[in-house]
Design brief:
The protein is elongated and about 55 Å long. Helix content is 13%, strand content 53%. 23% of the residues are buried. It is mainly beta. The longest helix has 13 residues. An 8-stranded antiparallel barrel has the order 1-2-3-5-6-7-8-9. The protein is built from 2 helices and 9 strands, in the order αββββαβββββ.
Length: 186
């Protein structure tokens, strides 16, 4: 029941579910980010990335709550990440929604490199992005992984001069997880 509710919530961003349609979903994918600045390396991650692919329409939606990121070098650093930089009270989630460019048969096992084109929304700012992703399809599951960068300035994330040498202006992001197949029934 919870999984179907999750599917419905995610699909409201993108499409209306239809009976018999195949979807792949995850509630526990991982997002890692690294800020490699001259004076400090900051690493954090979340195991709470939720995602969904509508096989028929080749559409997708991925969402992570900002407050689910852990790691950092200190509790104070995590607090500043949430309160001063990402403003997670005002902008509680990051979202990537769009369409898979390549034609792909999700019933054919194999490893594929695809391009996901869509809107990446971070800190309330929407940016059009194309993100390469590797998919391995096998036995009703898709293992996926992707690497990309985020420029803080593109998303109006301001870094005070006093900590400018400790926070990189370009953040590297890795995403990975397993999507499981589900046929939506009425």
């Amino acid at each position: 029941m919870i999984k179907l509710l999750f599917l419905f919530v995610l699909l409201t961003y993108q499409t209306t579910p239809q009976s018999g349609t195949a979807y792949y979903y995850t509630n526990t994918a991982k997002v890692n980010f690294n800020s490699d600045a001259p004076q400090e390396l900051i690493k954090a991650s979340s195991n709470s990335l939720r995602g969904l692919i509508d096989v028929e329409k080749k559409t997708f939606v991925y969402k992570v709550l900002i407050r689910t990121f852990t790691g950092f070098n200190s509790a104070l650093q995590r607090e500043h990440f949430n309160e001063k930089f990402l403003e997670s009270e005002k902008y509680p989630e990051a979202l990537f929604t769009g369409k898979i460019i390549e034609d792909i048969n999700f019933d054919t096992p194999g490893t594929y490199t695809i391009r996901a084109k869509g809107k990446l929304i971070i800190h309330g700012v929407e940016q059009e992005r194309i993100i390469k992703t590797e998919l391995t399809i096998k036995g009703g599951e898709i293992v996926f992984s992707s690497k990309f960068t985020v420029l803080l300035a593109d998303f109006n994330i301001k870094v005070p001069k006093v900590v400018h040498e400790k926070i990189a202006s370009e953040i590297s992001v890795d995403v990975e997880g397993i999507l499981k197949k589900k046929i939506l029934q009425e």
